């Protein structure tokens, strides 16, 4: 059944940045949530899991810069005409929440590493990220708790985003998901 709604797509850079972000998010979640299972089964060491987790998170954080610039200043795909004002508001609110939660989660993770007295090296690029916070044992506990709590909220926002995309695709059949395809 062909959709009667607009399916004009997002720009290629926005689509590529979106799906690169999805791939990085899968790496972040898998390495963060499955690290204990991986270590227990000796599939991966904790250090290797955390290198993947932190590296993917830092890549995601800095991928947000061109992504936000492309979203703010680039051409926009037109809004779906069938969307109610509330649906448009909800979509914008979830997108803003996703950006804020991802940025917050990455910065808190960066602070955890620094509070433990470590830095985040980027050997391929020849530098290391500066410390956001000084080494501090109590700060480690607070930031880990904050990272876990915000992670749960972020997962909820991601589930809402994915659920809405699938609902639009399979129930509404309004072309929303096709707009973010290559």
TrEMBL record:
Its cofactor is heme b. One of its GO terms (molecular function) is heme binding. It is a multi-pass membrane protein. SUPFAM superfamilies: Transmembrane di-heme cytochromes (SSF81342). Residues 9-180 form the Cytochrome b561 bacterial/Ni-hydrogenase domain. It is found in: Cell membrane. The chain crosses the membrane at residues 12-30, 50-69, 89-113, 148-171. GO terms for cellular component: plasma membrane. Keywords: Cell membrane, Electron transport, Heme, Iron, Membrane, Metal-binding, Transmembrane, Transmembrane helix, Transport. It holds the Pfam family Ni_hydr_CYTB. GO terms for biological process: respiratory electron transport chain. Its main location: membrane. It comes from the Bacteria. Belongs to the cytochrome b561 family. PANTHER family: CYTOCHROME B561 (PTHR30529), CYTOCHROME B561 HOMOLOG 2 (PTHR30529:SF1). This is Cytochrome B.
